[in-house]
Amino acid sequence: MVLAVIPARGGSKGIPRKNVRLMNGKPLIYYAIHNAKNCPSIDDVVVSSDDEEILKIASSYGVETMTRDSELAKDAVTLDPVIYDAVCTMEKKKGIQYDVVITLQVTSPLLSSDTLDKALESFLASSDDTYISVVNKPHLSWTKKDGCYVPNYEKRLNRQQLPPNYLETGAFLITRRECMEVNSRIGKKVSVYEMPEREAVDIDAASDWVLCEHELKKKRIILRADGYKELGMGHIYHCLTLAYNLTGQELLFVTKEQHEPGLKKLQEANMPVHTIKSDEEFLEFVQEWKPDVVVNDCLNTKADYIKELKKYVKRVVTIEDLGEGADYADAVINALYEDHTRGDNYYWGSNYVCLRDEFFCATPSVFHEQVQNIVVIFGGTDPSNFTKRIYEMAKRIHKDYPEIKFHFALGVGYDQKANQIETDEAAGIYVEQNLKHISDLFGKADLAFTSQGRTVYELATMGVPAVVMAQNEREMKHTFAQMNNGFLNLGLGINVADETIETTFRWLVETPQIRKEMQSLMMRHDLKSGIKRVIGLILEDEEI
Hints:
Oligomer: single chain
Mean pLDDT: 93
């Protein structure tokens, strides 16, 4: 027989009414009771307290309660006699003797019932007398000896190379009944049970309370996106931006294993990734992982897919979704397209742009009468290979504009070698692939060539006038990249002749007043607040 004792004194001074104060909508004592009741190996649960309010709340959760003697509620009294008293009282009441006793502390609300159950199973299968909950915190430390500060180590090593340093968490202590005395709960053969660091917070100060409440409120979020040549890498980069702004949540990327460029980028970003082969496999995984939110950044969805997803997850958010499934999502966020005929769950336009972090502190481009630097950037894969066309144009016109430098920013999925795109300083051509900080390049640019994706927002933020060519019919629906916002849009790129591109280039280079007006139109937009709105929609938090 196993008894769990939850000691809960009423006289908390650091945090008044600590044990019954609401944490994430529930009394603090609820979490210890919940863990004990959800541990299959625990037979009985008792709360020992000197406080009537604590006892009434504990009783409402369906556990035994006992009024602690006032002598056992004094500040100087340790837990040993309190637990011993509770065990003896319960044994007398039940007419039995317990085999194992667990002390569960109210001040460890992050402890999970799963961890507690595994610890108890491990203990019951062992020959140990006592298990103490610990967290492993290896650090270089010092102590004071004979008036001098001396190290607690022989050799300075990196933290990962240091020997274990187990700190008691106070979350639980498991011991055999025969090892218990009035002033001791620890037997001769002691072992430790290492618990997850996230669960090891012991509430002792207000800052601990804030941390625990945040942890209990955090959400499990799946970000689903793919990246490959035909689709491009925009969805991967967008979800990475979301991830960097969802700090404090439990995140997991899901991508199809056959789309290697996207998978590789996520792995390079050190993000947790789970791979799937199909929508059916994804739905099965959602049932297993049990997320609170799924962000689906995979373009058009089908109604059956979203309806099925909604069976297993509370909130579904889709990105750039023009499919029939979007009507069934909780929120549809589309910074690129606008269609105000759709329902109230649609959030359109530039108010929902998610700029990457680097653009929040980057300095916009300074206007120059004479064009000095041109950026050429057509996304992660450039499926229509506009890069090659601009590269060949740059070579042709160099004799007419020897002072202009072309900077080609190639995406991670672009085949530079096959397309023979390389730096040629004699022709004023500089090529870089998979740049980590693109805003530096934009900051010195006077003009840009780009496709009609999210990059247009980044160029607008940096004030770089741009010539735009859409990669496909879908991109042509993007409404922002127009002249009224500072862009010269040539339409579907595959239908634009090389002569038109070159003529447009020459006109812009030779008419600085047009470029200056384009920059002015770009800079009137405040695009930096969009990420805050999108994060609020994902978390369903109106205050964000």
